[in-house]
Amino acid sequence: LLEQLYGRLAARVLSAFHHTLQLGPREQARNASCPAGGRPADRRFRPPTNLRSVSPWAYRISYDPARYPRYLPEAYCLCRGCLTGLFGEEDVRFRSAPVYMPTVVLRRTPACAGGRSVYTEAYVTIPVGCTCVPEPEKDADSINSSIDKPGAKLLLGPNDAPAGP
Fold first, then answer.
1. For residue range 80-98, what is the model confidence (pLDDT) as tens digits?
2. pTM to 2 decimals?
3. Is there a domain that residue 143 lies in?
C-alpha cells in the first residue's frame, strides 16, 4: 500500500520536473553547461524559470531504495558565478549557491512487524534551486564584516558613521 501511494506521488513529482531534468552525475559533467551570454532570439520560446534565472539550475533524480519516496528531484547550479552582465555574461564576483529545504522522508529500518518492513520518519535537506550570492571576501576578520565592505559604506551618507559598540 505504501509503495502504491508513494509510487503515484513520485510519478506526479517526476512529471512536474520532466522539462528540467538532466542526466546523472557522470553524464551531467559532459552535457550540462552554464547558459552564459545568450538569450534565445525567438521570443516565442520561453525557457522554464530555472533556466531564466541569474543563477540557473537543473534537476537530477536522487534514488535511494531504502527511502520513500525512492526518487527525489535535487537541484544543482549550472554556473559557478551569476549571469548578471548586460548580455547575460557570467560574473564570478558573485557565486551561484544552492537553496536547501528540509523534507520529511520515510526510511526503511532492518526491523519487521507482521512480515512487513518498518519505516521511520527522517528529515533530509535537499537542494530545491539556486540563488546568487556575493563571493565572500577572504580577509573578513570580524563576525559582522559587512560594515567594513565598500558596498555597505555606500549606504551611509557622507556625514554618517557606523554605530559603535
1. 999 998 888 999 999 999 9
2. 0.63
3. no
